[in-house]
Inverse folding.
């Protein structure tokens, strides 16, 4: 595969640079697992001032790994420094939801963060920068970012639903007794939240329709879909920390598919354009085809039956409600 920037160094910025997701993601990027083993990398790590000491420890470890592709590291609490000439930006940093916090309060905290990031990216990043928003609520944070970065094409801004996609692939594989490589046809629709729709109606396992092997629609609706929708909460309860390793892996998959191309249909939250009756104005997860070079297309022509439509309607309704709340805070 051709590296994203074959005649230069790829500048990759990661926010929340001292966080757990970044800690798992950085070795994947610096080792060449994401952008290829011929692509030199410069890392820009952004975090808040109280985290700078921990961030410096991360920098020490990156140096100690002696990654051959790593050409430089900048650690900072200044978005204007972090995003300067960025070719790729992974926005993993956000304000976490705390006990008793209302959704509007969470949105208000994150609107301010992504407003500042949007302004900085708009001013100093590469105009062809590719952005994946990870920090939750990621779909609506992507919308806010886009609003404040008007010179960056909406198609260059995405939100992460590849983790949900990977979870769905894994559940199908586990329950049908095949390798994840033998699973195809799953998709994530809508919001990266408990209303997301992990669609297995067209999933195949070794070329055979998976739905009968999964126990039919009743089992999928009552057991498997809730398992995927609530997986993050289950991981948090089990280990006392949110999903970091699997999130980092999914970010790597998302970026590799988007920039390098992918033979399989994958899931990404992208700017809605009226496809599947989802009006423009939100970042919505669709099944997409990544053709490489940072280009994707929403897969068209999928028949959404009654079973699927109720899920897609619910997650669409939630996203537009979030949109109105977020816009009222701008």
């Amino acid at each position: 595969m051709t590296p994203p920037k074959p005649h230069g160094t790829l500048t990759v910025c990661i926010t929340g640079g001292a966080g757990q997701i970044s800690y798992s993601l950085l070795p994947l990027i610096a080792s060449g697992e994401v952008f290829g083993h011929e692509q030199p990398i410069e890392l820009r790590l952004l975090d808040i001032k109280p985290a700078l000491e921990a961030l410096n420890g991360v920098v020490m470890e990156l140096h100690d790994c002696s990654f051959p592709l790593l050409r430089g590291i900048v650690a900072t609490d200044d978005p204007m420094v972090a995003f300067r000439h960025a070719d790729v930006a992974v926005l993993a940093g956000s304000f976490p939801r705390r006990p008793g916090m209302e959704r509007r309060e969470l949105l208000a905290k994150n609107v301010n963060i992504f407003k500042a990031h949007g302004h900085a990216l708009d001013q100093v990043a590469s105009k062809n920068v590719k952005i994946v928003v990870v920090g939750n609520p990621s779909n609506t944070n992507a919308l806010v970012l886009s609003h404040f970065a008007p010179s960056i094409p909406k198609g260059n801004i995405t939100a992460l639903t590849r983790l949900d996609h990977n979870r769905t692939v894994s559940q199908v594989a586990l329950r049908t007794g095949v390798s994840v490589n033998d699973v195809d046809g799953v998709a994530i629709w809508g919001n990266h939240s408990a209303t997301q729709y992990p669609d297995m109606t067209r999933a195949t396992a070794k070329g055979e329709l998976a739905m009968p092997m999964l126990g039919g629609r009743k089992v999928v609706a009552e057991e498997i879909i809730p398992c995927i929708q609530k997986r993050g909460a289950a991981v948090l309860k089990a280990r006392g920390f949110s999903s970091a390793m699997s999130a980092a892996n999914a970010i790597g998959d998302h970026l590799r598919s988007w920039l390098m191309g992918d033979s399989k249909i994958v899931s990404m939250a992208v700017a809605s354009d009226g496809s599947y009756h989802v009006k423009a104005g939100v970042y919505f997860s669709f099944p997409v085809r990544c053709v490489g070079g940072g280009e994707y297309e929403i897969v068209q022509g999928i028949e959404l039956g009654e079973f699927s439509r109720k899920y897609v309607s619910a997650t669409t309704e939630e996203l537009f409600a979030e949109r109105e709340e977020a816009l009222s805070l701008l």
Summary: Residues 162-328 form a domain with the L-2-Hydroxyisocaproate Dehydrogenase; Chain A, domain 2 fold (CATH 3.90.110.10). The first strand starts at residue 10 and ends at 15. Residues 178 and 211 are 14 Å apart (CA to CA).
